[in-house]
Amino acid sequence: MVKPADTRTAGRKPVARTTRSAAETEKIRAALAARRDELSAEYDQTLSEITELQRDRLTDSAGDDQADTGTKTFEREQEISLANSIRERITQVERALERLDEGGYGWCEKCGDPIPVERLAAFPSATLCVKCKQLEERR
Ligand SMILES: [Zn+2]
């Protein structure tokens, strides 16, 4: 009769790399969430500006000459591309939050060191620590 394999040693954890404390993870989460709220507000603001520009175009374009119309179209296009880039950044922050939950966020891809909270808050898409980033830029 074969005994079931001894499982007592199977669950052994691999040697832990430097881990972030829960408090630090929370700090990053809070920074990212604040960033997301900030961007959302900016996004809403930009959207209402676009709506306003559009309304202007519809209401008082009767007396406009071609140049005015051109300027307004240009302004509106700029606002739209601004809105798109904000939307993009919001997505980045949301992805960062997901990765944070999975434990795969905030580590330097090069040296494996934790990326400082302040840096992550400023650049949610950062994948390198400052040191590695600087080395990369110097090349
Ligand atoms: Zn690094």
UniProtKB/TrEMBL annotation:
Residues 103-138 form the Zinc finger DksA/TraR C4-type domain. Signal peptide: none annotated. Pfam families: zf-dskA_traR (PF01258). Keywords: Metal-binding, Zinc, Zinc-finger. A zinc finger (dksA C4-type) spans 108-132. This is TraR/DksA family transcriptional regulator. Residues 1-25, 54-74 are annotated as: Disordered. InterPro entries: DnaK_N, Znf_C4-type_bac, Znf_DskA_TraR, Znf_DskA_TraR_CS. Coiled coil: none annotated.
